[in-house]
Every structure is written in structure tokens, then in C-alpha cells.
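=== RUN LOG ===
request id: a7f3
mode: sequence -> structure
chains: 1
length: 280
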Amino acid sequence: MKRTADLPPHPPPVVGFADCYVGGFVDRFHAHERGQLSLFLAGSVTVSTQDRRFVLGPGQGMWIPAGMIHEADCRTDLVFQVVYIDPGLTGADLSCRMFDVSSLMRGLVDEIIAMGFDFAMDARMARIARLLVDEIGRAPRIADRLMLPSDPRLRRVCEAITARPGDCRDIDYWAREAGMARRTFTRLFQQEMGLGFAAWRRRVRVIEAASRIAAGQSIAEVAFDLGYDNAGSFSTMFQRTFGVSPRTLRAGSSPALRPYPVLPARQDDDGAEPGGGGER
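=== RESULT ===
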């Protein structure tokens, strides 16, 4: 097992290694002088930046630019590969993103890792590094992320909900927690997040559900824990969001999850979306 601290004082401009973490490990907020590319081979992890949270599983990758503060919370035992790339090779335009890993990207990362930590950056390795950066830039982004608001009152509410996705307290409760009138709360939430509070909370739940099911938790248990009265209504909401059933995900035969865009939805007076699928 290798860590960033184990790298030599002056590594090549691109360097990588394979690693693993045990479930429950949290790599607290930190930043790197280089850009970080992570490819996840097994397990599930939540990666948080200052304004977003990403849930990643096998076959997915994430790019974190140099200097970006981030934290990794291992939902299960995690096996991954990581490559650190000098900012001089990536420029300033390669923003934070998650994506499905292509076979080409996987091969390029394998080649870089095989070179170890002490090699000459010759013309061949320079071409490999440039091609890898190109692959990161062209990889289609996956929408499996949670945006967090910049307003500190809304952010406090959103962080409380992501910590306990099954919390069923209504919008009036959360408006009071934010110190706002209900109308002000809903208007500001829509303005900052681009969707209503109920739709955002539903997204929190289904992303959390995908991580739990992939880790082996039963569908019925996940549904109840996340505020649904029954597994059927939960499955309907899950399939509406991801395009596959939770049972398919549990069987491990589904393609990488690509959540459909969440459109702003009309909300009833109690803050619940019409046809909300049996959430408690």
C-alpha cells in the first residue's frame, strides 16, 4: 500500500499507484499540490468538496484539480488506483468531475502505475500523459452528485439532511431551522439549487440508496430507512431516477448509473411533491 506521503521528493510530472482503504475510513478534508485522478475498482465512496458531494462506485472515476479541498468517506472496503498529475500538464480548464472510466483511460493508468515512482519523462511517457489528460477532459460527466447551497442557512439544512437522508420532517420544520419564513425558504432554495426542496431531498435519498444497495443492504431495509412506507414505492422512485430497478443494481448486472436530470417540480402546500411515491 502506498500513500501520497510515500512519494519521492521530486516525482515525475505524472505518477500513480494502487491503493485500498477499509470501510468506514474517512480521509478528512485536505488538498494536493497536483491534480488527482482516481479510478475505483471495488467498493463505494462519497467524495465531498466544499460545494458538492459525489457518490462513486466500481467502474467510475473522479478528477480533482490541484489545490481543491476534498474529503473521502469510504462506505465499504475500497480498492482504487490514483494518478497525480502536475498542473503544468493539465492547465486551468480541467474542472472537478466524475465519469465512467473508458478502457483507454484504464490502460493509460495501468501503464503509468507500472512505471513506478522513478522514471524518465521521455517522449513516450509525455504522449501517454497528454492522452490521459485528453481522456479526462472528454469523459462525459455523470450527474450522480449533490449540489450544496452557498447560503449558510440553507447549507446547514442540506448538510443535516445528507447526514440523515431518512429524516421525514417537513418543509416547515426546515424553514424554521433556517430561520426563514416558509415562502422565503422555498424561493431561496429554488433560486440557489435550481430545483425545489422536495425534489432535492428525493435526490439525496436515491443517491444514498444506490450506495447502500451496491454495498449489499436489502432493498426493503433501504426503503424503510430512507423514509418510504414500502419497497414498491421506493423502487418506482429509484427507477424513475436511474432508469434501472434497485433489484437490477443489487444483482450487479446494471450499467453504470446515470441519474436522469431532476426537473423543478410543483410542490403541494405541505412541501411534498405530487405522487411522491409513498415517502413517510
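=== NOTES ===
The chain has two domains: 4-138, 149-251.
The radius of gyration is 20 Å.
=== END ===
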